[in-house]
Amino acid sequence: MQFIFLSGSSNSQNLIRSQGLMQIAMDRLQTELDRILSSNRCLLDPESFSTRFSERSFGSDFSYDDTDAGTGDETQIGRENDRASAIAASDLHSIAKCMISVGYGIECVRIYKLARQSIIDEALHRVGFERMSPNQVQKLDWEIVEGRITNWLAAARIAVRNLFSGERILCDQVFAGAGAIKESCFAEISKDAASDLFRFPESVAVKCKKSPEKMFRVLDLYDSLSDLLPEIESIFSYESTSAVRLQALSSLLKLREQVRNMFSDFESELQKDPPRSPVPGGGLHPLTSYVMNYLSFMGNYSGILAEIFADLPFQVQNPFFQISTTAANDPLSSIAARIAWLILVLLCKINAKAELYKDVSLSYLFLANNLHHVMNEVKKSEIGYLLGDDWVSNHEAKVAQYAASYERAAWGKVVSELPDDPTAEIPSEKVKEAFQRFSSAFEKTYRIQRDWIVPDEMMREHIKVSVVKRVVPAYRAFFKKHQVLFRDESDFGDLVRFTPMDLENYFSELFSGSLRSQMSP
User: What is the pTM of this model?
Assistant: First the structure.
């Protein structure tokens, strides 16, 4: 189309006629622009457009070339869609170029923005993101927020890598050669939606204040946003979209700050945990279970935590705290030290709770149970790798020490009622006294321990076997040597109350918290 501008008076009929023709032409171009945008919504969908032209940089030429295309029905359909998308984008570019060149850029941008902005909003809704203000997020129950976080994690990746990327690619193509208009158009289409999308993590961080148990969802948001940040900075590189970049960075920094605070709050809560009533039976303390479950999850985020704490060195002035990690310049060493410190604080708390038991043997059993659980959680999670083999070996040795101390404290006195040499010749009265003392000591000790607990099956069996080896062989030797002296006496059953097999049967029922065994008073 060629426009003729004539000099002379504004009342010139030719000038009036040319202006009228221009207006008609522009009206038709606006109508055609709107028609192409409306009828090609699927072909110009930003997600699809981004996928088709993902290998092309922003602002590059979009002329279509299918010389390297493959064969087959699906490939043919794909080639046709690619060609149709390129043609539609090229037509839009031609119309935009014409309108802008004759001063109708504002009208062009208005139509384009109106059509494309609705597509962005619909696409965000389709991928599961519901735009909300920070105040609205604060008023939601946490269960609902968790669902929104899950939706955001999926939606943000699609929005950045397909939706906004595709919209930027299309905008660069349509308004190629019109730098300022191209920039402002993309900004007006995407800025509000993108800002809302990247503001959500910051709103969640604020809501999670003073809630260490919510740290892992905050870490999920941090991990995702940190991963997407380079692409966000590339897509929203214009000065007019700097607010989007700043919002994404602000959210990332707020998430980092909140994780650090949550970590600190978690330690504070652990430090303040007071000694309460002892756990019945010396079993697993709820604090041990809670802390180790928390730390096990934390191990799965060690890389992210290392990034978050990279500029915050960990220092503790405590003579009992020593840990050898990997190389000093390894970012994970700081996280390993923090986790090791939290475990030490936990074990100190467990030691304090062990002192609540009046029976020292039960204290040792409680310590063995809880440290064994700590070690199980360490070895089956990433924490084991972080803390290293030496740390694991040292603490496993402590479990064995606690178990041995329990065994000595609980059953040492029972065995001591037998002669040092069970097969030695001693007077019959001494034999009677030994049987009576042993039976009374065993019965008393067994009754006390009948409700004691060892939750871990392997450890339970290990301690049973160890106790049996300590008690039964000595008693069996004594029993075999001296039972013949009293077998024919009428009170033999009262004198020799247990056979070696009886002892083994009773021991088999220990540490289950069961009252199955019934002994005579």
Answer: 0.82
